[in-house]
From TrEMBL:
<keyword id="KW-0238">DNA-binding</keyword>
<dbReference type="GO" id="GO:0006950">
    <property type="term" value="P:response to stress"/>
</dbReference>
<dbReference type="InterPro" id="IPR000835">
    <property type="entry name" value="HTH_MarR-typ"/>
</dbReference>
<dbReference type="Pfam" id="PF12802">
    <property type="entry name" value="MarR_2"/>
</dbReference>
<protein>
    <submittedName>
        <fullName>DNA-binding transcriptional regulator, MarR family</fullName>
    </submittedName>
</protein>
<feature type="domain" description="HTH marR-type">
    <location>
        <begin position="7"/>
        <end position="138"/>
    </location>
</feature>
<dbReference type="InterPro" id="IPR036390">
    <property type="entry name" value="WH_DNA-bd_sf"/>
</dbReference>
<dbReference type="InterPro" id="IPR036388">
    <property type="entry name" value="WH-like_DNA-bd_sf"/>
</dbReference>
<dbReference type="InterPro" id="IPR039422">
    <property type="entry name" value="MarR/SlyA-like"/>
</dbReference>
<dbReference type="GO" id="GO:0003677">
    <property type="term" value="F:DNA binding"/>
</dbReference>
<dbReference type="GO" id="GO:0003700">
    <property type="term" value="F:DNA-binding transcription factor activity"/>
</dbReference>
Length: 150
């Protein structure tokens, strides 16, 4: 197998592993991966507009409406009036402690495993890996924008 094909397969395997991990985490919360992604963004921000959630997740505002409905029903979020804009609303995180109790051990374990793995590399190697991943993210964002604008 050529080096290029090996990289394409590794990229696909990485993407699949990341998606599978996030799907599994979402199931722990009895939600979809998209709902879990929104909850994660909302947990980081504490409060956001639906537009900010859409921007941060790459989902449409229509999809965000349904997701916020489900997060609200599950008790993880609540809508409230935006004091700065009567036409807008805010989505606020609820039960962050409960979310932390569920997700803390999961992401703590992942973080520890990743830290152990990164210990196998020299600082110079980690710099190259960091640069590669950063550039990969930028390429993916650029290609995503191209697809959105077609």
């Amino acid at each position: 197998m050529s080096k290029i094909n090996a990289n394409r397969n590794l990229g696909r395997e990485l993407a699949t592993a990341v998606i599978t991990f996030h799907e599994t985490v979402a199931r722990r919360l009895n939600m979809s991966a998209a709902e879990s992604r929104c909850l994660g963004v909302l947990n980081d921000l504490e409060v956001a507009t639906p537009g900010q959630l859409a921007q941060a997740t790459g989902l449409t505002t229509g999809a965000i409406t349904g997701i916020v409905d489900r997060l609200e029903k599950a008790g993880y979020a609540r809508r409230e009036a935006n004091p700065d804009d009567r036409r807008s609303l805010l989505v606020r995180i609820r039960q962050p402690e409960k979310i932390g109790e569920i997700l803390g051990p999961i992401y703590g374990s992942l973080s520890a495993a990743m830290k152990q793995m990164s210990g196998e590399y020299t600082p110079e190697q980690l710099e190259i890996i960091d640069r590669y991943l950063t550039q990969t993210i930028e390429v993916l964002k650029g290609e995503t924008e191209k697809l959105k604008n077609r």
